Batch of 2 targets.
Target 1
Amino acid sequence: MRRGVVQRVRMQRTAKLPTRVVYTGSYVVYLLVSAVVAGCGGAGAGDGTSTAAVSATNPQTAGSSGSSSATATNSPPTISGTPGTQVQTGQAYSFTPSANDSDGHKLTFSVLNGPSWASFSTTSGQLSGTPSSAQAGNYANIVISVSDGTTSASLPPFSITVNAVPAGTGSATVKWNAPATNTDGSTIVNLAGYQIDYGTSASSLIQSVTISDPTATSYTLQGLATGTWYFAVSDFTSAGTVSALSTVVSKTIQ
């Protein structure tokens, strides 16, 4: 009798199992891969294929849309101008800085160590006033700043010296012609006023008075002591631009 040969056949079946998870925002991802499983028989239904699913959510974007937005940057405001540093008692002082914000934000001004005799506008930054004879002296470390609500900028600290009126009863009336054009020939459209610088030396006009009236063409200085006095006039615009001084003129007080 012929011996039968029994051949053991190694059967294979395929099962699809998850091997890894890919994160893509908050979407659920299913990955299926095939794996070979050795064994005998026909475990499993149908073609022996079983399916497993794994879901995952990106932990960095869980509970969010997975999108991000950039934070807008804010440019600080700018401020410029050269304030006067001399004024005589009984004479008006005025300075208005020029400020700008490239983002178009509303600007607010503030002042630190403002003189007691001066008022200050938080809207325009104007520092103005008329010191009395009792307020002669030096007012130091004045700082004018501007803020857009988030960032700020400041002018360098400056001082104002209030000079007492010299003993005397003399006076001098300074007259000038209102300028019509700028040095480049263009028409002046923002003239804001004038400043008269004067003193007892033509090379040292250490006293000044500001006339915040662009229509003015003369001004009388009072309380001048005996001697020769020298005068020069400059004009300024609302943007803070100041012209060069005029020719120096003089008057002798008897």
Note: The two ends are 161 Å apart (CA to CA).
Target 2
Amino acid sequence: MRSYSGSCCLSLGCGGVEYGAGITHLDSQASYPDSMTSIAFSTLSLPELLAMTPEGLAWLGGEERERVSTLSHPRRREQYLTGHWLARCLLAAAEGGDPLAWSLRRSESGAPLAFFRGRRSALHLSLSHTSGQAACAVAGVAVGIDIEQPRRERDYLALAESLYDSAFHSELCACNEVQQRTAFFRRWTLDEARAKSTGEGLRMHALRKHAWVPTQESRAAGWTWDLDDGWLALALADDADTLPARFEIQGDAAAQAPRHWRMETRG
């Protein structure tokens, strides 16, 4: 049986504030059975994250400082810094240690990699940003997270027709405008999250070759949450990864159980 947290299970902060209260060792057999995948994630607003992110750049690793130096837009710089501090807090909560002892590097594909005191961690993480929020997920298996907060309306029927197969487009045609928007972003965030979990990136030509279908908790490899002003998704790289999952959540998604999805290949 999957266990969901119904309230904020993470205490993230800096200075004298405790990090990670409520989460200990995501991969600990003493905490979770072998048959359970634990995924910790947080979605916080940029003002919340800015208030707890250390000043300056001394806490960043060398590769991170180089990356920050290329970001000229203030908001993009804030997103990068707050997301990387959030990741450190979640990693410290999951595996221990001071958040300042953690650092992030990029793989050849650009995916974030976690290091503790210079040594590669076995934990996987994923980051996502919108204009007003940052999201991060940490797990013992390859995981991807995506959050979307669209700022303008789009023609979702036209988008579905250009990106996806005819079955999904027909599904949207039977919906009203609000339902079309929700269905599109549930699908899109799942695809983005899955692409991050595999490290392959979003391959647009392949989107027509699969579909996400509702499933039982025990078969899920993807999860979505409808937020007040957007959509959030998590996905695993491997459908056969240790399931079911236990979530430790901070942010808008903490008050609700997710929808469960599995990916099917289409001919």
Note: The first helix runs from residue 46 to 52.
